[in-house]
Amino acid sequence: MRTKSPPMSLPQLFYETTVGKIYWGDSLELLKDIPNNSVNLVMTSPPFGLVRKKEYGNVEADSYLQWFRDFAKEIHRILRENGSFVLDIGGSWNPGLPTRSLYHFKLVIMLCEEIGFHLAQDYYWWNPSKLPTPAEWVTVRRIRVKDAINTVWWLSKTPFPKASNKRVLHPYSGSMTELLKNGYRAKKRPSGHDISSKFSANNGGSIPPNLIAIPNTESNSSYIRYCTAEGIKPHPARFPRELPEYFIRMLTDSGDLVIDPFAGSCVTGEVCEKLNREWICCELVLDYLKGALGRFPVRPSEGKDEEVSYRVMKPGYHWNQRIEDKLSESGGATRE
User: Could you say which of 26, 88, 147, 253 is catalytic?
Assistant: First the structure.
């Protein structure tokens, strides 16, 4: 049986590194104890509003907005003015029907119109390895295709949160590499777009789209090996390390503070440890935290990129450990 913290208890310190802390308990209580305007990034994936109950304690879609409202208010309060809130959240199906719930769209509207966030950008995480679900509509009646996309809402307190897409560039395609090598004659495309001579400038990589392709196929990481050795069941809904790493790289500087209030197995903490960000993770279920210990100490060489057979570039191929330029505090409000 999974061990949850006592009701209304203050979170207890469970584990600590030189830059991060893990707490066991109610994250809403933890958030209330964090000072105003002190956090650079909240990166999290809370339990989704699903029709079918999961073991990690998800809230029903119809009740989701009411449940999340208090968390949203605290997250808005603790964020710095140029900070960001990145929310990975999956969609849901209406009970007994091959139609989709709108709860995650209603959620982002509430976050913006009621709480005061700005929607900096909507992302979509495509998991190519996702099983064909929901089975009734996809594999039995065959009237829908498999659901393989999560929405990732990038929210902010200001229209100009600090950010740089230079941190997450993709390597150039073969054709673009050839173009840079041989030169490009500026001209208009048939569509009418005017491609200037600046198009041939080598900027170190291509700007990624807001579709992120990451197969969620972790099978031999230090976390999985630790759980197996200790007889601990791994968290059933982990996001891959590259997802939080994408946003931590793009939206924070070394030494910034990142918080994950629905930490699960503390993937966010593992990434922050690797990138030298200060971090706080909080999780309600003690057993998940016992397994999370397998992520620490972080071994930078852990995990190799897998070959992929799809066209959308997987984030991470272009990342390295070089010192990054500091993000603009104005968030791009002015040209620099």
Answer: 88
DSSP SS3 for 146: coil
* Distance (Å, whole) CA 184 – CA 112: 43
Ranges assigned E (strand) in the chain:
12-16, 20-24, 39-44, 79-90, 118-126, 149-156, 187-188, 194-195, 211-213, 257-260, 278-283
Q: Is 27 a catalytic residue?
A: no
Rounded to 5°, the CA angle 89-151-11 comes to 25
User: 6-47, pLDDT tens digit by residue?
Assistant: 555 689 999 999 999 999 999 999 999 999 999 999 999 998
214-233 per-position pLDDT tens digit: 988 877 788 899 999 999 99
- Residues, the chain: 336
DSSP 334: S
Nearest to 263 by CA among 238, 290, 299, 287: 238
Whole-prediction pTM: 0.84
Q: Is 84 noted as a catalytic residue in this protein? A: no
State the catalytic residue, choosing from 5, 45, 84, 156: 45
46 assigned to active site: yes
Q: Residues 11, 27, 46, 315: which is the catalytic one? A: 46
Complete DSSP assignment for 264-327: TTTHHHHHHHHHT-EEEEEESBHHHHHHHGGG-S--TT---PPP--SSSPPTTTT--SSPPPPP
- Measured between its terminal Cα atoms, the distance across the chain in Å is 55
